[in-house]
Amino acid sequence: MTNLQFLTHEDLEQIRMEFGTPSFVYDENTLRNKAQALQAFPHAFGFFPRYAMKAAPTAAVLRIFNEAGLGIDASSIFEVERAVRSGFGTESISLSTQELADDFRYWAQDGVKINLCSLNQIQKFGSWKVGEPVGLRFNPGTGSGGTNRTNVGGPSSSFGIWKDDLEKARELCDQFDLQVERIHTHIGSGSDPEVWKNVAGMSLDLVRAFPSVHTLNLGGGFKVARMPDEVATDLQEIGESVKTIFEDFARDTGRELKLEVEPGTFLVAHACCLVSSIQDITDTGTDGYRFIKLDAGMTEVLRPSLYGAQHPIHIVPEPEQLSSRKTVEQVVVGHCCESGDLLTPAPGDPEELAPRKMIEGEVGDFCVIDSVGAYCSSMTTKNYNSFPEAAEVLKKKEGNLALIRKRQTFEQLIENEVVP
Ligand SMILES: *Cc1c(COP(=O)(O)O)cnc(C)c1O
């Protein structure tokens, strides 16, 4: 049997029978292990890890991380609400958002922390006179990400206050009597560890400009290795070097800064797979391709279509059929009427088909897409072609499978429609 990380063939059968395909399946043990590994991040003067919940915001996942002692990085006021409803205290949530909703003032009064991400946000929050200290998110001028689309620092990125606007930011904060206690940078997902460390150094220069700052949040972006040829960021290694620059900073300035990081991908990427079924096969001849068509696609896993992201894919026939199957090159596509609904693009090029050598798939086989915990279930073309949203299941630490999000019903899919 192929390497399915945490699922057995019996699990697959049970998932098909009980929950249907496609279903996302999360693994509680992996979630807990990753949270523990993050808690061990080296630090000099205190540390608070947050979970960037936009990666996978389902309540059952949030609860596990709450129990593991993580805080929350929210990207919208709706995520704040979701975190609170799943049990997080407001004081453990921080918001860094592109859209600062007017209602946020009430959450701020309730203790949710804000990282103001633009000059306009400073002005807006300042005018509310909430009286709580704030954080400022800066774009340090350098970014790094696996692709241009996941790079969120540098001049072509809109995230954060541009570094050269530091003086303007400071003046605005003075004008509104805002006390700045946190500086925040997040430069991208899947970022280069060397760039990440450099930005940590540059962020300390921002901290120098704000004497009241006691916490530096360096965002997330730790690279994980989904495919065998990818290299994961070593948290201990970058943590040690960040610890050293914090210690140097303390020697220079007498200021002992607390560290925060807020990964999404690192915590959940490997903790989930999508269990789907092969529902059709097409072959376009000797100059063409053998296409494996799933009962899932960009409606569940959009990253390949968006970034040319690579995910391990396992075709799983009945165990007794395994010996009679060859290994052949195949292209795996989704169920949407959209040629971009492709699960095996060339790395970094969503437009190019890249056939993969896999067990020859047949209709009815399972097809398991691995390492889909981050930005898959939460970032889809939901309901395109009117396919209902997939179910989510948790493999609990005791080994049993529990439903954590029901499959969307057809009624739910059309419930907001009004015919005038
Ligand atoms: C998305 C995001 C993160 C998490 O990024 P990962 O690459 O998933 O670790 C952290 N902080 C902020 C502000 C983000 O927008």
Task: Provide the helix percentage.
Answer: 25-40%
So, CATH architecture of the largest domain? Alpha-Beta Barrel
What general form does the structure show? globular
Helical segment tally? 12
Looking at the structure, the CATH topology of the largest domain is TIM Barrel
Describe the model:
- The protein is α/β, with parallel strands linked by helices.
- The protein folds into 2 domains: 9-25 and 269-407, Lyase, Ornithine Decarboxylase, Chain A, domain 1 (Beta Barrel); 27-268, Alanine racemase (TIM Barrel, Alpha-Beta Barrel).
- 27% of the residues lie in helices and 23% in strands.
- It is built from 12 helices and 20 strands.
- The strands form 3 sheets. Strands 1, 11, 12, 13, 14, 17, 18, 19 and 20 form a 9-stranded mixed β-sheet that branches. An 8-stranded parallel β-barrel has the order 2-3-4-5-6-8-9-10, surrounded by 4 helices.
- Strand 19 (391-395) and strand 20 form a beta hairpin.
- Helix 8 (193-208) runs parallel beside helix 9 (235-253).
- It is globular.
- The protein starts with 8 loop residues before the first helix and ends in a 6-residue tail after the last helix.
List keywords for this structure.
single chain; 20 strands; 12 helices; 9-stranded mixed β-sheet; 420 residues; TIM Barrel; alpha/beta; 8-stranded parallel barrel; binds pyridoxal-5'-phosphate; Lyase, Ornithine Decarboxylase, Chain A, domain 1; 23% strand
